[in-house]
Design a protein that fits this description.
Layout: H1 21-25, H2 34-43, H3 64-71, E1 79-81, E2 87-90, E3 108-116, E4 121-128, E5 137-139, H4 156-159, E6 160-161, E7 165-166, E8 178-186, E9 191-192, H5 194-204, E10 213-217, E11 227-228, H6 233-239, E12 243-246, H7 261-270, E13 273-276, H8 281-290, E14 294-299, E15 309-311, E16 315-317
Helix pairs in contact: 2-7
Length: 318
């Protein structure tokens, strides 16, 4: 199976080499070459860290103690959805042969509604294609490959196919759910680099730590653009984050010769699952109102065998 990637939403920007204060002062003009990127892929990898048969990746960092610690962040019981509403296309004639042959809609849900007035019940069928830039979803570790490999060094062709789906590293491995500390970094209109994160930590007094789920509001829904700059790659490893997400598909910069550097590094090298296209406006409003940027985070993807991800409605609890 071959995977094709859309580059249209990648922003071509200069990348940062972080080796100390002097290098950081020149970050606006520094670049990360493909050679440097490939070095990071090798040297910062989590392959084998939790055993050769591991299917969870960085989710292993969410320990029982981490969950208990995160649960203590739920002080007021206020719950905020972190998913955006889906666009729905309703079929006029759900019983037609055409209805059963139509392809899934990219970025929306096709709904087939049925009602039995005489017996008093209503039911429906949904068909969805959630990968892409619209629907809030969680990427499994089999979703992308770099140089023919997925997380833990498995061969992509042995893991994923159009006939069998993902036979390893699939979304069903997360059926038990995700519960940890969530951290929202609210930096609209920013291609976020290390100095942006560190300045945000200094201002808020929060330090991103092992097992955290890190989220970025780029301001997508108010016309802003942004994402995680590829220069953050060493930062993700240093802080040992367990999960990563944003209101966009993560990418906030480019490395020449690497189609989607954040996706490749997090999913393949670190084994960090990704939450794409989240709805973070209400969460940002709540965080600003309460002046709280950390919260109990919960998500439970569908237990679909051989799935490369799941549409999802994650929750933040304050």
């Amino acid at each position: 199976m071959r995977m094709r990637y859309t580059r249209g939403w990648l922003v071509l920007v200069a990348l940062l080499l972080t080796v100390g204060p002097d290098a950081r002062a020149q970050e606006s003009t520094a670049e990360v070459t493909k050679e440097q990127y490939d070095t990071w892929m090798r040297e910062l990898s989590n392959w084998g860290r939790w055993g050769q048969d591991d299917q969870l990746g960085a989710v292993n960092l969410i320990t029982a103690a981490k969950r208990v610690e995160a649960a203590q962040l739920a002080e007021t019981g206020r719950v905020v959805s972190m998913a955006r509403d889906m666009t729905v296309d309703t079929l006029d004639d759900p019983e037609s042969e055409e209805a059963n042959r139509l392809p899934a809609l990219v970025g929306s849900v096709r709904s087939v509604f049925n009602i039995d007035v005489n017996n008093g019940y209503f039911w429906e069928r949904y068909e969805i294609e959630y990968h892409g830039g619209t629907v809030s979803h969680l990427d499994a570790l089999c979703h992308v490959a770099y140089n023919g490999k997925v997380y833990n060094g498995l061969d992509f062709e042995a893991v994923a196919s159009t006939d069998d789906g993902c036979t390893d590293m699939g979304i069903i491995n997360l059926k038990g759910g995700l519960v940890t500390r969530g951290v929202l970094v609210d930096l609209p209109g920013t291609s976020v680099r290390r100095q942006d994160i560190e300045a945000w930590e200094d201002e808020t007094g929060i330090r991103i730590s092992s097992g955290d789920a890190l989220f970025l509001r780029t301001g997508r829904d108010i016309g802003q653009q942004g994402g995680y700059h590829p220069s953050l790659i060493p930062f993700f490893k240093e802080r040992d984050i367990a999960l990563l997400g944003a209101d966009v598909p993560q990418e906030g910069g480019a490395v020449e010769g690497v189609a989607i550097p954040i996706h490749f590094f997090t999913l393949v090298a670190l084994g960090v699952h990704l939450f794409d296209n989240l709805g973070l406006e209400e969460l940002a409003e709540t965080a600003n109102e309460l002046n709280r940027w950390e919260f109990l985070f919960m998500a439970s993807p569908h237990g679909v065998p051989h799935g490369a991800g799941s549409a999802i409605n994650p929750l933040a609890v304050f």
